[in-house]
Amino acid sequence: MITTFFPPYNFGGDGIFIYRLVNELAKRGHQVDVVHCEDAYLLLQPKGPQGDFPCHENVRIHKLRSRFGFLSPLLTQQTGSPGFKSRALSDILDNSHYDVIHFHNMSLIGITALRYGSAVKLYTTHEHWLVCPMHVLWKNNKELCAEKSCFSCTLAWKRPPQLWRYTGLLQRMLREVDHFISPSRFTKQKHMAQGLDIPITHIPYFLPRRPSADYSPCEAGSASTGSHEFLFVGRLEKIKGVQDLIPLFRRRPTYRLSIAGDGTYAAELKELAKGVQNIRFLGRCSHAQLSALYRKANAVIVPSICYEVFGIIIIEAFSYKTPVIVNNLGALPEVVHDSGGGIVYTGEGELERAVDTLAHDHELRDRLGQQGFEAYLKYWTEEYHCELYFELIDQIRKAKGLTLPGVVR
């Protein structure tokens, strides 16, 4: 597994998913090596990692470090090459006999690292970095990208432009990968619409099952108690859309909005919510804290104003039989439509009606939550993901005439 960020040296949901996949494969008997860039994380978070993320005994971690510190990821960002990390990457990938090499977030590892190693090669599009230097198709840091102007957009984000993107390097390197994986149909279509001619298959994210006792009805978080509790979980960045929730809850003082997470936009959000007593900012929450929040919420609101690749928070809510209210954008409505586990809104008026509905219609709330839970068990568990994952690997292996050891499924 090759990725820029891996817990605890990690910021977003993609790293958490990779962590889950790595440990699920290890639990099934695979030997898994993880390569990530410690320098890249420390460039963005000098205070160092937070949290404890123990790995299975079959997992071995390789942290890419350079005596040049922040210059290493900066060189990679500019050239698309691993640069000072090249020797370490080559030693790991070219001198080992891996059956599968799976690439993930390559932004500060370097696109040319795709040529390293000889194995079945996969690449998961956890974000839009292959078609967007800023990863999120959020133009000039203020609106959805409808027409590309990457050079000026990168400057608007206060990042140095990546000159390698104006060569044929990307297309050449993408040919090194056997197959690409997209977490959603939306993201697959978005990459193809942006002009990438690549073999790509939709395999959704998964959330590991909890112990069976944890799903007991008495702990499922029914809203029939008459509560008016709503929840947001995620990074506090402008593109996540939390600012659009504040006016609504200012007008609904009997409803409570709990905001779990932190990020660069936190201070501005707190200023916007100043004096609104029914909005509480909880910061980073433990698993136990999040579990309690999910259980008692009437709904989890996902108001992202950017093109989300999947929406892992949605299936987390479903696993607690809690419905969702999501913005009609990106992959979010796809997950709701596949499950029947929530309400999709377009615009402020529909958002307000959805919140009012799930605050008062407890029977609907519980029915949507149950439908989401049943869809989670069908589409978004580790069993379903691994079945599709290994099927894809088998197809590539047969097409290339390779023989792999017996796969532990």
Structure description:
With 409 residues, the chain is an alpha/beta fold. The protein has helices spanning 13-27, 38-44, 71-79, 86-93, 150-156, 169-174, 185-193, 246-251, 266-272, 287-296, 312-319, 332-339, 347-360, 362-379, 382-400; strands at 32-37, 59-64, 100-103, 120-124, 138-139, 143-144, 179-182, 200-202, 229-233, 256-260, 279-283, 299-302, 324-327, 342-345. It has 2 domains: 13-206 and 382-400, Glycogen Phosphorylase B (Rossmann fold), CATH 3.40.50.2000; 212-379, Rossmann fold. The chain has a 6-stranded parallel sheet with strand order 11-10-9-12-13-14, sandwiched between helices. A 4-stranded parallel sheet has the order 3-4-7-8. Helix 11 (312-319) packs across helix 14. The longest helix has 19 residues, at 382-400. The two termini are 18 Å apart.
Low-confidence stretches: 217-224
Biggest sheet character: 6 strands, parallel
Oligomeric grouping of the chains:
single chain
The fold-level CATH name of the largest domain is Rossmann fold
Which descriptor suits the 3D outline?
globular
Structural class: alpha/beta
Main sheet strand line-up: 11-10-9-12-13-14
Strand content: 5-15%
- The radius of gyration is 21 Å
Q: Number of DSSP helices?
A: 15
Order of helices and strands: HEHEHHEEEEHHEHEEHEHEHEHEHEHHH
Count of discrete structural domains: 2
SS elements, strand count: 14
In the CATH hierarchy, what is the class of the largest domain?
A: Alpha Beta
CATH architecture of the largest domain: 3-Layer(aba) Sandwich
Distance between the termini: 18 Å
> CATH H level of the largest domain: which superfamily?
Glycogen Phosphorylase B
Q: Could you report the average pLDDT, rounded to the nearest whole number? A: 92
Helical proportion, percent range: 25-40%
